[in-house]
Amino acid sequence: MATIKIKQVRSQIKCPKSQKLTLAALGLKKINAVVEHEDNPAILGMIEKVKHLVVVEK
């Protein structure tokens, strides 16, 4: 499978707890942090939940 890069571009302040936990599960802790994950349905669902806070590169 392909890998995707996920970059956090907005703060998690004022976000619901579920979105904060999703960012933590993706491995994002700070703004401009970048992580790489496999392109699978679980990760894509997590990205969909916090799509307003992150930018995704294939």
UniProtKB/TrEMBL annotation:
Organism: Microbacter margulisiae
Single GO biological process annotation from the record: translation
Protein name: Large ribosomal subunit protein uL30
Domain Large ribosomal subunit protein uL30-like ferredoxin-like fold: 4-54
Pfam families: Ribosomal_L30 (PF00327)
Family: Belongs to the universal ribosomal protein uL30 family.
Molecular-function GO terms, alphabetical: structural constituent of ribosome
InterPro entries linked to this entry: Ribo_uL30_ferredoxin-like_sf, Ribosomal_uL30_bac-type, Ribosomal_uL30_ferredoxin-like
CDD domains: Ribosomal_L30 (cd01658)
Cellular component GO terms held in the UniProt record: cytosolic large ribosomal subunit
Key words of the record: Ribonucleoprotein, Ribosomal protein
Domain of life of the source: Bacteria
SUPFAM superfamilies reported in the protein's UniProt record: Ribosomal protein L30p/L7e
UniProt entry tagged with the keyword Repeat: no
UniProt signal peptide: none
Subunit structure: Part of the 50S ribosomal subunit.
